[in-house]
Amino acid sequence: MRMRFKPYARPELLASPLHAHTPLENKGKWHQVFARPEQPLHLELGCGKGGYLAELSSSHPENNYLGIDITDKVLVLAKRKIEQAFEAKGLPADNVQIMSLDIERLDSAFDAADTIDRIYINFCNPWNRKAAHKKHRLTYTRQLILYRNFLKDGGEVYFKTDDDGLFADSLEYFPEAGYEIVWKTFDLHQNEPDWNIRTEHEGMFTEQGIPTKALIAVKRPASAEELEKNLAARIAREKAEAAKRREAQQAANQKG
Ligand SMILES: C[S@@+](CC[C@H](N)C(=O)[O-])C[C@H]1O[C@@H](n2cnc3c(N)ncnc32)[C@H](O)[C@@H]1O
Question: Which 8-state DSSP code applies to residue 19?
Fold first, then answer.
C-alpha cells in the first residue's frame, strides 16, 4: 500500500538529534557522530518504519547503528519508534542515527575510513519485478561490490527476504561480489535463532504464511579484477537472457 505524503515528516526529522541532516558531510567520519566512537558501527539499509532498528539499537548499546532509507515518510516513524524503545528501557538514544539517502549512492556518504562491521538488509524487495529492474536490488552484485568500499575485511551482511527469486539470485550475487555465505536458511522461523528480531514486513509476510529466507555472508579478500570480471559476466548473461526473452515474445506475437 502506498503511504501518503507526510508534510510534517521533514521538519520533525530536522528537529531531531536522531536524524543525520547532512549525511554527505559525514563521509569518512561516521564514527565521530556517536557518543562512543570506538564502538562497532552497523548499518541497516532500507530501515523502513524502524521497528527492527529501534529494538536492535536499544538492546545493544555496545554497538552504534545507522538506519538508512530513501523516504522521510517512513524515517519519521522510525524516529518515533526509536524514541519509544529507548524511553521504555530508560536508556539515552546515543548509539543510533537515521538518515535519508538512496542506497545506490551509498559511496557518496561512506568511504573506507567508516569501517562498517555489519550491514543488515531486510525485505528490500525490488521496486519492480521486471528483469531489467534486478540491477536495482540492494543485494545485486554491483551493490554488494560497492558495500565492500566501507565494510571491514571479515565484515558481515545479514540478509532476510520473503522473495524466493530474490533469495535464489542473491545466493549467486554474494559469492560473485567476494562474500562467503557462512549461514543460510529457507525458513528462518522454523528454528528461529535467538538473535532474530522480526521486522514489520517479516511480521506481515509471516501472517500470510510466506517463509522468511535469510543468510549471513562475510566479506572475503578479493581483487578488483576478479570482481569486475564476475560483474561483467553477470551483465553479459542477463543481456543474453533478455535477448532470448525478447525473441520468444516476438515469436509468440507473430503466431498470435
Ligand atoms: C519493503 S520495505 C522493508 C522495510 C523494513 N526493512 C522491514 O523489513 O519491514 C523496503 C524499504 O527499503 C527502502 N528502500 C528500497 N530501495 C531503497 C534505496 N535504493 N535507497 C534507500 N531506501 C530504499 C524503502 O523505502 C522501504 O522503506
Answer: B
State how far the alpha carbon of 93 is from the alpha carbons of 52, 84, 97, in Å.
15, 10, 9
- Ligand 1 is surrounded, with C-beta below 6 A, by 46-48, 69-71, 74, 102-104, 122-125, 199-202
Q: What is the pTM of this model?
A: 0.94
Domain contains 248 = yes
**Ligand 1 closest atom vs CA 124:** 10
Instruction: Please state, in angstroms and rounded to a whole number, the distance separating the CA atoms of residues 92 and 195.
Output: 22
Q: Report CA(47)–ligand 1 centroid distance (Å).
A: 6
* Total structural domains within the chain: 1
Range of the domain at 164: 9-255
Q: 231 vs 25, 197, 205, CA distance in Å?
A: 30, 32, 31
For residue 221, being part of any structural domain is answered with: yes
* pLDDT given at position 12: 97
Backbone angles phi, psi at 15, to 5 degrees: -90, 0
Condensed to tens digits (0 to 9), the pLDDT of residues 10-29 reads 999 999 999 999 999 999 99
Mean pLDDT of the chain: 94
The contacts of residue 244 (CB under 8 Å, 6+ apart) are: none
pLDDT in tens, 102-128: 998 999 999 999 999 999 999 987 655
- Residue 52 grid coordinates: 527492527
> How large is the average pLDDT for residues 179-185?
98
